[in-house]
Design a protein that fits this description.
Elements: H1 3-22, E1 27-33, E2 39-45, H2 49-55, E3 57-60, E4 84-89, E5 95-96, E6 103-112, H3 122-135, E7 139-144, E8 146-151, H4 169-174, H5 176-188, E9 193-198, E10 204-209, H6 214-234, E11 238-240, E12 256-262, E13 265-266, H7 279-290, H8 292-299, H9 305-308, E14 318-323, E15 328-333, H10 340-343, E16 345-348, H11 357-368, H12 387-393, H13 402-411, H14 413-419, H15 421-438, H16 443-450
Parallel strand pairs: 1-6, 14-15
Antiparallel strand pairs: 1-2, 3-4, 4-6, 5-6, 7-12, 8-10, 8-11, 9-10, 12-13, 12-16, 15-16
Protein backbone atom coordinates (compact mmCIF):
# COMPACT_ATOMS: atom_id res chain seq x y z
CA UNK A 1 0.00 0.00 0.00
CA UNK A 2 1.65 3.23 -1.18
CA UNK A 3 0.79 6.90 -0.78
CA UNK A 4 -1.37 6.90 -3.91
CA UNK A 5 -3.46 4.10 -2.44
CA UNK A 6 -3.83 6.00 0.82
CA UNK A 7 -4.86 9.20 -0.97
CA UNK A 8 -7.46 7.33 -3.00
CA UNK A 9 -8.89 5.67 0.09
CA UNK A 10 -8.96 8.97 1.97
CA UNK A 11 -10.91 10.63 -0.84
CA UNK A 12 -13.42 7.80 -1.08
CA UNK A 13 -13.89 7.66 2.69
CA UNK A 14 -14.48 11.41 2.83
CA UNK A 15 -17.39 10.99 0.42
CA UNK A 16 -18.74 8.03 2.39
CA UNK A 17 -18.43 9.79 5.75
CA UNK A 18 -20.61 12.65 4.56
CA UNK A 19 -23.27 10.25 3.28
CA UNK A 20 -23.14 8.19 6.46
CA UNK A 21 -23.58 11.27 8.63
CA UNK A 22 -26.67 12.19 6.60
CA UNK A 23 -28.08 8.74 7.49
CA UNK A 24 -27.53 9.34 11.20
CA UNK A 25 -24.33 7.31 11.56
CA UNK A 26 -22.03 8.62 14.29
CA UNK A 27 -19.57 5.75 14.64
CA UNK A 28 -17.84 3.31 12.28
CA UNK A 29 -16.55 -0.07 13.42
CA UNK A 30 -14.00 -2.21 11.61
CA UNK A 31 -13.07 -5.69 12.75
CA UNK A 32 -11.02 -8.77 12.01
CA UNK A 33 -11.48 -12.35 13.22
CA UNK A 34 -8.69 -13.82 15.32
CA UNK A 35 -7.37 -17.37 15.45
CA UNK A 36 -9.89 -18.26 18.18
CA UNK A 37 -12.81 -17.14 16.01
CA UNK A 38 -13.54 -13.92 17.93
CA UNK A 39 -14.21 -10.69 16.02
CA UNK A 40 -11.96 -7.97 17.45
CA UNK A 41 -12.94 -4.38 16.71
CA UNK A 42 -11.74 -0.79 16.55
CA UNK A 43 -14.16 2.13 16.10
CA UNK A 44 -13.89 5.79 15.14
CA UNK A 45 -16.33 8.71 14.97
CA UNK A 46 -17.74 8.96 11.47
CA UNK A 47 -15.71 12.10 10.77
CA UNK A 48 -12.50 10.14 11.34
CA UNK A 49 -13.35 7.51 8.71
CA UNK A 50 -11.02 9.09 6.08
CA UNK A 51 -8.04 8.82 8.43
CA UNK A 52 -9.00 5.27 9.37
CA UNK A 53 -9.29 4.30 5.70
CA UNK A 54 -5.93 5.84 4.80
CA UNK A 55 -3.81 4.98 7.81
CA UNK A 56 -5.75 2.39 9.79
CA UNK A 57 -5.98 1.88 13.54
CA UNK A 58 -3.38 0.11 15.61
CA UNK A 59 -3.70 -3.49 16.78
CA UNK A 60 -1.05 -5.21 18.87
CA UNK A 61 0.72 -8.24 17.44
CA UNK A 62 -0.47 -10.05 20.57
CA UNK A 63 -3.96 -10.38 19.08
CA UNK A 64 -2.72 -13.26 16.94
CA UNK A 65 -2.35 -15.16 20.22
CA UNK A 66 -5.66 -14.29 21.90
CA UNK A 67 -7.73 -17.17 23.19
CA UNK A 68 -11.54 -16.99 23.08
CA UNK A 69 -11.60 -16.08 26.79
CA UNK A 70 -9.12 -13.23 26.13
CA UNK A 71 -6.12 -15.01 27.64
CA UNK A 72 -3.01 -14.27 25.55
CA UNK A 73 -1.15 -17.45 24.59
CA UNK A 74 2.11 -15.55 24.25
CA UNK A 75 4.91 -17.17 22.21
CA UNK A 76 7.91 -18.50 24.11
CA UNK A 77 10.10 -15.96 22.32
CA UNK A 78 8.57 -13.18 24.40
CA UNK A 79 7.72 -11.17 21.28
CA UNK A 80 3.95 -11.19 21.86
CA UNK A 81 3.57 -7.57 23.03
CA UNK A 82 6.14 -6.21 20.57
CA UNK A 83 5.11 -4.69 17.23
CA UNK A 84 1.96 -3.23 15.74
CA UNK A 85 -0.34 -3.71 12.79
CA UNK A 86 -2.83 -1.33 11.25
CA UNK A 87 -6.39 -2.47 10.55
CA UNK A 88 -7.80 -0.80 7.44
CA UNK A 89 -11.51 -1.09 6.56
CA UNK A 90 -12.64 -2.52 3.24
CA UNK A 91 -14.81 0.37 2.08
CA UNK A 92 -16.45 -1.75 -0.60
CA UNK A 93 -18.21 -3.73 2.15
CA UNK A 94 -19.14 -0.79 4.39
CA UNK A 95 -22.72 -1.16 5.65
CA UNK A 96 -25.02 0.78 7.93
CA UNK A 97 -26.03 -1.53 10.78
CA UNK A 98 -29.80 -1.86 10.83
CA UNK A 99 -29.98 -3.24 14.36
CA UNK A 100 -27.46 -0.82 15.91
CA UNK A 101 -28.74 2.67 15.19
CA UNK A 102 -26.00 5.22 14.56
CA UNK A 103 -23.37 2.65 13.62
CA UNK A 104 -21.77 1.39 10.41
CA UNK A 105 -19.38 -1.53 10.00
CA UNK A 106 -16.77 -2.73 7.53
CA UNK A 107 -14.51 -5.78 7.67
CA UNK A 108 -10.86 -4.89 8.01
CA UNK A 109 -7.54 -6.12 6.68
CA UNK A 110 -4.37 -5.89 8.73
CA UNK A 111 -1.16 -4.43 7.38
CA UNK A 112 2.29 -3.86 8.82
CA UNK A 113 3.23 -0.28 9.61
CA UNK A 114 5.23 -0.09 6.39
CA UNK A 115 2.08 -0.89 4.38
CA UNK A 116 2.87 -4.52 3.57
CA UNK A 117 0.19 -7.14 4.27
CA UNK A 118 0.32 -8.69 7.73
CA UNK A 119 1.36 -12.33 7.09
CA UNK A 120 -1.09 -13.65 9.68
CA UNK A 121 -4.19 -11.84 8.46
CA UNK A 122 -6.76 -14.49 7.54
CA UNK A 123 -8.83 -12.27 5.26
CA UNK A 124 -5.80 -11.38 3.14
CA UNK A 125 -4.79 -15.05 3.11
CA UNK A 126 -8.20 -16.06 1.77
CA UNK A 127 -8.07 -13.36 -0.90
CA UNK A 128 -4.65 -14.61 -2.03
CA UNK A 129 -5.86 -18.20 -2.35
CA UNK A 130 -8.95 -17.05 -4.27
CA UNK A 131 -6.63 -15.21 -6.67
CA UNK A 132 -4.56 -18.37 -7.13
CA UNK A 133 -7.68 -20.29 -8.13
CA UNK A 134 -8.54 -17.43 -10.47
CA UNK A 135 -5.20 -17.85 -12.22
CA UNK A 136 -6.37 -21.37 -13.03
CA UNK A 137 -9.58 -20.02 -14.52
CA UNK A 138 -11.73 -21.10 -11.58
CA UNK A 139 -13.99 -18.95 -9.42
CA UNK A 140 -15.70 -20.15 -6.27
CA UNK A 141 -19.04 -19.52 -4.62
CA UNK A 142 -19.36 -20.18 -0.92
CA UNK A 143 -21.79 -19.66 1.92
CA UNK A 144 -22.02 -20.42 5.61
CA UNK A 145 -25.07 -21.69 7.41
CA UNK A 146 -25.51 -20.12 10.85
CA UNK A 147 -27.11 -21.98 13.77
CA UNK A 148 -27.74 -20.37 17.15
CA UNK A 149 -29.86 -20.50 20.27
CA UNK A 150 -31.64 -17.71 22.11
CA UNK A 151 -31.72 -17.69 25.89
CA UNK A 152 -33.98 -15.83 28.30
CA UNK A 153 -31.67 -16.37 31.25
CA UNK A 154 -29.67 -13.58 32.86
CA UNK A 155 -26.88 -15.74 34.25
CA UNK A 156 -24.45 -18.20 32.71
CA UNK A 157 -27.07 -20.94 32.34
CA UNK A 158 -29.00 -21.45 29.12
CA UNK A 159 -32.79 -21.02 29.35
CA UNK A 160 -34.46 -21.54 25.95
CA UNK A 161 -36.32 -18.38 24.97
CA UNK A 162 -38.39 -20.07 22.26
CA UNK A 163 -40.69 -22.96 23.11
CA UNK A 164 -42.08 -25.41 20.61
CA UNK A 165 -41.12 -28.55 18.69
CA UNK A 166 -38.06 -28.94 16.49
CA UNK A 167 -38.60 -27.27 13.10
CA UNK A 168 -42.06 -26.40 14.41
CA UNK A 169 -44.35 -23.61 13.31
CA UNK A 170 -45.29 -23.17 16.95
CA UNK A 171 -41.73 -22.20 17.88
CA UNK A 172 -41.64 -19.63 15.10
CA UNK A 173 -44.92 -18.15 16.34
CA UNK A 174 -43.44 -17.81 19.83
CA UNK A 175 -40.77 -15.42 18.52
CA UNK A 176 -42.43 -14.04 15.39
CA UNK A 177 -41.57 -10.41 16.24
CA UNK A 178 -37.94 -11.38 16.75
CA UNK A 179 -37.90 -13.26 13.45
CA UNK A 180 -39.48 -10.34 11.62
CA UNK A 181 -36.92 -7.91 13.00
CA UNK A 182 -34.12 -10.27 11.94
CA UNK A 183 -35.38 -10.51 8.37
CA UNK A 184 -35.90 -6.75 8.15
CA UNK A 185 -32.37 -6.09 9.42
CA UNK A 186 -30.84 -8.57 6.99
CA UNK A 187 -32.70 -7.04 4.06
CA UNK A 188 -31.66 -3.51 5.04
CA UNK A 189 -28.02 -4.63 5.12
CA UNK A 190 -28.15 -6.32 1.72
CA UNK A 191 -27.92 -9.87 3.09
CA UNK A 192 -29.75 -12.27 0.79
CA UNK A 193 -31.54 -14.77 2.99
CA UNK A 194 -32.44 -18.15 1.49
CA UNK A 195 -34.09 -19.76 4.53
CA UNK A 196 -34.80 -19.01 8.19
CA UNK A 197 -36.38 -21.64 10.41
CA UNK A 198 -36.44 -23.25 13.86
CA UNK A 199 -33.82 -25.99 14.25
CA UNK A 200 -33.71 -29.17 16.33
CA UNK A 201 -32.62 -28.11 19.83
CA UNK A 202 -34.69 -26.00 22.25
CA UNK A 203 -34.46 -22.33 21.37
CA UNK A 204 -32.41 -23.10 18.26
CA UNK A 205 -32.68 -21.45 14.82
CA UNK A 206 -30.86 -21.64 11.50
CA UNK A 207 -30.24 -19.15 8.72
CA UNK A 208 -29.05 -19.88 5.18
CA UNK A 209 -27.82 -17.13 2.86
CA UNK A 210 -27.08 -16.95 -0.85
CA UNK A 211 -23.61 -17.96 -2.09
CA UNK A 212 -21.03 -15.28 -2.80
CA UNK A 213 -17.33 -15.06 -3.58
CA UNK A 214 -15.38 -16.57 -0.65
CA UNK A 215 -14.16 -13.35 1.01
CA UNK A 216 -17.62 -11.80 0.71
CA UNK A 217 -19.28 -14.90 2.17
CA UNK A 218 -16.97 -14.85 5.19
CA UNK A 219 -17.75 -11.14 5.64
CA UNK A 220 -21.44 -12.00 5.49
CA UNK A 221 -21.03 -14.68 8.15
CA UNK A 222 -19.48 -12.13 10.51
CA UNK A 223 -22.22 -9.57 9.77
CA UNK A 224 -25.02 -12.13 10.12
CA UNK A 225 -23.84 -13.14 13.58
CA UNK A 226 -23.41 -9.54 14.72
CA UNK A 227 -26.93 -8.78 13.51
CA UNK A 228 -28.44 -11.82 15.23
CA UNK A 229 -26.80 -10.83 18.48
CA UNK A 230 -27.91 -7.20 18.23
CA UNK A 231 -31.53 -8.04 17.38
CA UNK A 232 -31.59 -10.54 20.22
CA UNK A 233 -30.49 -7.91 22.71
CA UNK A 234 -33.38 -5.70 21.62
CA UNK A 235 -35.75 -8.53 22.51
CA UNK A 236 -34.06 -9.36 25.80
CA UNK A 237 -32.43 -12.52 24.43
CA UNK A 238 -28.92 -13.73 24.92
CA UNK A 239 -27.44 -15.44 21.85
CA UNK A 240 -25.04 -18.38 21.69
CA UNK A 241 -23.36 -19.83 18.62
CA UNK A 242 -21.46 -22.41 20.67
CA UNK A 243 -21.18 -25.96 19.30
CA UNK A 244 -22.29 -27.22 22.71
CA UNK A 245 -24.56 -24.90 24.64
CA UNK A 246 -26.00 -27.79 26.66
CA UNK A 247 -23.89 -30.94 27.18
CA UNK A 248 -27.00 -33.05 26.58
CA UNK A 249 -28.06 -31.15 23.44
CA UNK A 250 -27.09 -31.48 19.79
CA UNK A 251 -25.16 -28.21 19.52
CA UNK A 252 -24.81 -25.52 16.84
CA UNK A 253 -23.08 -26.19 13.54
CA UNK A 254 -21.75 -23.76 10.96
CA UNK A 255 -21.69 -25.74 7.73
CA UNK A 256 -19.83 -24.35 4.72
CA UNK A 257 -21.09 -24.74 1.14
CA UNK A 258 -18.65 -24.57 -1.78
CA UNK A 259 -18.99 -24.79 -5.55
CA UNK A 260 -16.41 -24.31 -8.30
CA UNK A 261 -17.11 -22.48 -11.58
CA UNK A 262 -15.32 -22.10 -14.89
CA UNK A 263 -16.69 -19.99 -17.75
CA UNK A 264 -19.95 -19.66 -15.80
CA UNK A 265 -20.34 -23.44 -15.65
CA UNK A 266 -20.74 -25.19 -12.29
CA UNK A 267 -18.03 -27.84 -11.99
CA UNK A 268 -20.08 -29.71 -9.39
CA UNK A 269 -22.71 -30.57 -12.04
CA UNK A 270 -23.08 -31.38 -15.71
CA UNK A 271 -20.08 -33.70 -15.82
CA UNK A 272 -19.56 -37.38 -16.46
CA UNK A 273 -18.45 -38.20 -12.91
CA UNK A 274 -20.45 -39.52 -9.99
CA UNK A 275 -23.76 -37.72 -9.57
CA UNK A 276 -22.82 -35.39 -12.41
CA UNK A 277 -19.59 -33.96 -11.02
CA UNK A 278 -16.85 -32.93 -13.43
CA UNK A 279 -13.27 -34.24 -12.96
CA UNK A 280 -12.29 -30.89 -11.42
CA UNK A 281 -15.22 -31.06 -9.03
CA UNK A 282 -14.33 -34.59 -7.97
CA UNK A 283 -10.64 -33.80 -7.43
CA UNK A 284 -11.55 -30.74 -5.34
CA UNK A 285 -13.87 -32.83 -3.16
CA UNK A 286 -11.18 -35.49 -2.90
CA UNK A 287 -8.62 -32.96 -1.71
CA UNK A 288 -10.95 -31.56 0.93
CA UNK A 289 -11.84 -35.07 2.12
CA UNK A 290 -8.19 -36.12 2.34
CA UNK A 291 -7.28 -33.10 4.47
CA UNK A 292 -10.37 -33.08 6.69
CA UNK A 293 -8.59 -34.30 9.86
CA UNK A 294 -6.20 -31.33 9.60
CA UNK A 295 -8.95 -28.92 8.57
CA UNK A 296 -10.77 -29.67 11.81
CA UNK A 297 -8.14 -27.65 13.67
CA UNK A 298 -9.60 -24.69 11.74
CA UNK A 299 -13.25 -25.67 11.44
CA UNK A 300 -13.75 -27.39 14.81
CA UNK A 301 -11.14 -25.34 16.65
CA UNK A 302 -12.22 -25.60 20.28
CA UNK A 303 -12.49 -28.29 22.92
CA UNK A 304 -16.27 -27.74 22.83
CA UNK A 305 -16.32 -28.60 19.11
CA UNK A 306 -15.69 -32.26 19.85
CA UNK A 307 -18.68 -32.50 22.18
CA UNK A 308 -20.78 -31.82 19.08
CA UNK A 309 -18.81 -33.91 16.59
CA UNK A 310 -20.23 -37.33 17.46
CA UNK A 311 -21.97 -39.97 15.33
CA UNK A 312 -25.69 -39.92 14.65
CA UNK A 313 -26.07 -36.20 15.38
CA UNK A 314 -25.90 -35.07 11.72
CA UNK A 315 -22.51 -33.57 12.52
CA UNK A 316 -20.49 -35.62 10.00
CA UNK A 317 -18.15 -37.51 12.30
CA UNK A 318 -16.67 -39.86 9.66
CA UNK A 319 -14.18 -39.19 6.86
CA UNK A 320 -16.54 -39.94 4.00
CA UNK A 321 -18.79 -38.29 1.47
CA UNK A 322 -22.18 -39.07 0.04
CA UNK A 323 -25.08 -37.78 -1.98
CA UNK A 324 -27.46 -35.98 0.39
CA UNK A 325 -26.01 -37.98 3.30
CA UNK A 326 -26.33 -35.83 6.42
CA UNK A 327 -24.09 -38.15 8.44
CA UNK A 328 -21.19 -37.84 5.99
CA UNK A 329 -18.57 -35.19 6.67
CA UNK A 330 -18.94 -34.06 3.05
CA UNK A 331 -22.45 -33.98 1.64
CA UNK A 332 -22.93 -33.51 -2.08
CA UNK A 333 -26.02 -31.36 -2.58
CA UNK A 334 -27.42 -31.50 -6.12
CA UNK A 335 -30.69 -29.63 -5.61
CA UNK A 336 -34.04 -30.44 -7.14
CA UNK A 337 -34.19 -32.00 -10.61
CA UNK A 338 -33.51 -29.28 -13.14
CA UNK A 339 -31.64 -26.98 -10.75
CA UNK A 340 -28.35 -28.90 -10.63
CA UNK A 341 -26.45 -26.54 -12.93
CA UNK A 342 -26.77 -23.67 -10.48
CA UNK A 343 -27.56 -25.42 -7.18
CA UNK A 344 -25.04 -28.27 -6.93
CA UNK A 345 -22.43 -27.75 -4.22
CA UNK A 346 -20.33 -29.49 -1.62
CA UNK A 347 -21.36 -29.06 2.01
CA UNK A 348 -18.70 -29.42 4.71
CA UNK A 349 -20.70 -30.55 7.74
CA UNK A 350 -18.11 -31.31 10.43
CA UNK A 351 -17.48 -27.67 11.38
CA UNK A 352 -18.95 -25.09 13.74
CA UNK A 353 -19.10 -21.37 14.42
CA UNK A 354 -16.10 -21.25 16.74
CA UNK A 355 -14.18 -21.20 13.45
CA UNK A 356 -12.66 -18.10 11.91
CA UNK A 357 -14.68 -18.10 8.65
CA UNK A 358 -11.82 -16.68 6.57
CA UNK A 359 -9.25 -19.11 7.95
CA UNK A 360 -11.52 -22.10 7.39
CA UNK A 361 -12.36 -21.20 3.78
CA UNK A 362 -8.66 -20.61 3.15
CA UNK A 363 -7.97 -24.12 4.43
CA UNK A 364 -10.72 -25.61 2.26
CA UNK A 365 -9.39 -23.86 -0.85
CA UNK A 366 -5.84 -25.00 -0.13
CA UNK A 367 -6.97 -28.57 0.50
CA UNK A 368 -9.16 -28.65 -2.61
CA UNK A 369 -6.22 -27.52 -4.74
CA UNK A 370 -4.38 -30.69 -3.72
CA UNK A 371 -6.07 -32.79 -6.40
CA UNK A 372 -6.87 -36.17 -4.84
CA UNK A 373 -8.93 -39.11 -6.16
CA UNK A 374 -12.36 -39.21 -4.56
CA UNK A 375 -13.20 -42.58 -2.99
CA UNK A 376 -16.52 -44.33 -3.34
CA UNK A 377 -19.46 -42.56 -1.68
CA UNK A 378 -21.22 -43.82 1.43
CA UNK A 379 -24.98 -44.06 1.02
CA UNK A 380 -25.91 -45.01 4.60
CA UNK A 381 -25.21 -43.70 8.07
CA UNK A 382 -21.57 -44.77 8.52
CA UNK A 383 -22.26 -45.45 12.20
CA UNK A 384 -24.56 -48.27 11.06
CA UNK A 385 -21.65 -50.11 9.47
CA UNK A 386 -19.52 -52.46 11.54
CA UNK A 387 -15.82 -51.88 12.13
CA UNK A 388 -14.86 -54.47 9.54
CA UNK A 389 -17.03 -52.88 6.85
CA UNK A 390 -15.78 -49.39 7.68
CA UNK A 391 -12.22 -50.66 7.37
CA UNK A 392 -13.00 -52.37 4.06
CA UNK A 393 -14.37 -49.11 2.70
CA UNK A 394 -11.49 -47.10 4.13
CA UNK A 395 -13.80 -44.97 6.25
CA UNK A 396 -12.28 -43.66 9.49
CA UNK A 397 -13.59 -41.50 12.31
CA UNK A 398 -12.56 -37.91 12.21
CA UNK A 399 -10.44 -36.74 15.15
CA UNK A 400 -12.38 -36.98 18.39
CA UNK A 401 -10.35 -34.35 20.26
CA UNK A 402 -8.76 -31.01 19.54
CA UNK A 403 -5.40 -32.63 20.32
CA UNK A 404 -5.81 -35.09 17.45
CA UNK A 405 -6.90 -32.47 14.92
CA UNK A 406 -4.11 -30.08 15.93
CA UNK A 407 -1.53 -32.83 15.47
CA UNK A 408 -2.98 -33.54 12.02
CA UNK A 409 -2.86 -29.84 11.15
CA UNK A 410 0.77 -29.48 12.21
CA UNK A 411 1.71 -32.51 10.10
CA UNK A 412 -0.16 -31.27 6.99
CA UNK A 413 2.36 -29.90 4.50
CA UNK A 414 -0.26 -28.58 2.07
CA UNK A 415 -1.94 -26.37 4.68
CA UNK A 416 1.40 -25.42 6.18
CA UNK A 417 2.76 -24.19 2.86
CA UNK A 418 -0.42 -22.26 2.08
CA UNK A 419 -0.57 -20.55 5.48
CA UNK A 420 3.11 -19.93 6.19
CA UNK A 421 4.98 -20.79 9.36
CA UNK A 422 4.15 -17.66 11.40
CA UNK A 423 0.40 -18.25 11.03
CA UNK A 424 0.74 -21.98 11.68
CA UNK A 425 2.68 -21.21 14.85
CA UNK A 426 0.14 -18.72 16.19
CA UNK A 427 -2.78 -21.06 15.45
CA UNK A 428 -0.95 -23.84 17.26
CA UNK A 429 -0.20 -21.59 20.24
CA UNK A 430 -3.86 -20.67 20.65
CA UNK A 431 -5.03 -24.29 20.32
CA UNK A 432 -2.37 -25.56 22.74
CA UNK A 433 -3.41 -22.93 25.25
CA UNK A 434 -7.06 -23.97 25.03
CA UNK A 435 -6.08 -27.60 25.49
CA UNK A 436 -4.12 -26.65 28.58
CA UNK A 437 -7.11 -24.73 29.93
CA UNK A 438 -9.99 -27.08 29.04
CA UNK A 439 -8.53 -30.32 27.67
CA UNK A 440 -9.15 -32.30 30.85
CA UNK A 441 -12.41 -30.59 31.85
CA UNK A 442 -15.80 -32.31 32.04
CA UNK A 443 -18.38 -31.71 29.28
CA UNK A 444 -20.34 -29.56 31.70
CA UNK A 445 -17.30 -27.42 32.47
CA UNK A 446 -16.44 -27.07 28.77
CA UNK A 447 -19.99 -26.04 27.88
CA UNK A 448 -20.07 -23.50 30.71
CA UNK A 449 -16.75 -22.00 29.64
CA UNK A 450 -17.68 -21.82 25.93
CA UNK A 451 -21.36 -20.93 26.00
CA UNK A 452 -21.18 -17.15 25.60
CA UNK A 453 -17.70 -16.60 24.17
CA UNK A 454 -18.73 -16.31 20.50
Amino acid sequence: MDQADRDQRHTRATELASALADEGVVGVATSFVDNAGISRVKTVPVGKLPDLAAWGAGFSSAFDYFRADDWVAAPASGEGPVGDQRIIPDLSRLVVLAAQFGWAWAPGDRYEQDGTPHPQDSRLLLRRLVDEWGERGVTLRTAYEVEWVVSAGDGNDFVAAAAGPAYGLGRLAAVSDYGRDLLEAFAAQGIRVEQFHPEYAPGQFELSVSPEAPVASADTSVLVRATIRAVGLRHGFRTSFSPKVDPAGVGNGGHAHVSLWRDQENLMAGGSGRYGMTPDGESFAGGVLAHLPALLALGAPSVASYLRLVPQHWAGAYVCWGLENREAALRLVTGSAGSEKWAANLEVKCIDLHANPYLLLAGILAAGADATPLPEPVDVDPASLGDDELARRGVARLPTTLRESLDAFLADQVLGEAFGQPLVDSIAAVRESELEELGSSSPEQVADASRWAH
